[in-house]
Amino acid sequence: MGYADRFRRQRSATVGEVVYSLTHSPYTALGDLYLEDRLGRRRRHPGWVPVVYCALARHLGSYNRLDAELADGLWAQLLAAADDAGLEPAPRSEPFRYYHHAYWRDLIMSDDTARHHLLTRLTEIALEQARRQGLLLPHGPGSITHPHRRRLIYGDGTILRPRFRYRPDNTGARNDPSAATHTRHDGHIWGNNYVLISARGEHPYSRVVLAIGRVPEPGGEAATAIELIQHVHQLAGPGIVGVAYDGAFQGAHHDKIMRTTGLVVINKPHVAVRGDEVVVKRHTLGTYTHTVGRHNQTCSHQLAAVNGRIADIEITEDGTPAVVAWANRHQVKRARRADGTYRFNMVIRLTCRHHNCDWDTWLSPHDDPEHIRLLPPDDIDFDRLYAVRPDAESLNASFKASLVADRAPSIGWQRQLYDVAGFTILHNATNLHRQASIR
Ligand SMILES: [Zn+2]
To answer: Cα(353) to centroid of ligand 1, in Å?
Structure first.
């Protein structure tokens, strides 16, 4: 089934299906965080109610619409589903409303510790869902040399435009001071940039959003993505082998992820464009030798990284370098150091045209992370793994579809992050239910 079909079916979920999915999902446990909060006023509603409310708002697109639906029968429907799920009863005559939501949201999201706690619990529950679906399992399929998609996480950023159009004379409530001009591959957009990290299997509805975060300032997306990747990896452990990211990672970012998490990074190298011409990134690595024959003769080759892939280079008669052989990644090795960091090495195999034999040599991507890739774009595994990229785009599209007029439902990044959390809960709970029902 293609993305378009999946997306259409995703949107066609009825309110009844969403209410059932949410009340029967493990995400209702997030409500415990509301109970733990001793600063808050005496609560009238059980903890699961604000969780389900903020997810339902994303299904219906706006809080106004949700409040109207709750007043018109949805509250009774929600209580019946909660009763079926064995959740704590809520007052029948007192529907949860936007001002309740706003109170809890601001209490949690304006406090750095409470916000971090909520987002961490969200990730823990999402990881549990992923593992139940056979994703990110420590003894799952694949290896470091040939990562399997089920042990891959992937991420992308998405820019949420503010509720009101920017005008210099916009002040007070109509202004969103947290917005800025962010630049992504889709252009310059005024808003807030959020990064989502996900995993998915081969089947429809198998995607699970694992972590969400906000980019604090323009140009900071890679740093935010790395923090989220590290966070997810720390909670998920050895079940993850690789990470695909659709965005501007540079050599230093690759190196940091490899060193701190031991994950294989799958990311397209920057393409340099000069005028109308795409410039192939070529970087000389130096002379590498192997021995041949009974007398251990030494044979030398000049190696270079071309678009992340290793090539044997010879200088032609007119003085220009030419690729005479491409290397194949033979094996990737990963070592853990005493300080907890990781170091990758790989064996690459080349064919020697002087002696008509294969020879192997060791390279480390840490020596030149900008040019030496564990999984370059021309590798046989690359396309299969990087194929998650359009999936990240479809996730962004379904997030945008949960908004009215493609604009943020709230003002201020902390509140918007709560909206993104609501979307994550809605998305994961619905997928979990649909996975179970098609099995
Ligand atoms: Zn040779």
So the answer is: 7
The share of the chain scoring above pLDDT 90, in percent, equals 63
DSSP string over 54-83: HHHHHHHS-HHHHHHHIIIIIHHHHHHHHH
pLDDT at 428: 97
Instruction: Find the 313 Cα to ligand 1 centroid distance in Å.
Output: 12
Q: How confident is the model at residue 1 (pLDDT cuts 50, 70, 90)?
A: very low
CA of 351 from ligand 1 middle (Å) equals 8
pLDDT tens digits for range 403-424? 887 888 888 999 999 999 999 9
Q: Compute the half-sphere exposure of residue 410: CA atoms within 13 Å on the CB side of its CA.
A: 22
Ligand 1 centroid–CA 294 distance in Å is 15
| Whether 269 contacts 247, CB under 8 Å | no
Domains of the chain: 3-112+418-438 (no CATH), 121-274+383-393 (3.30.420), 280-374 (no CATH)
- Amino acid symbol at 246: D
Mean pLDDT across 39-67: 89
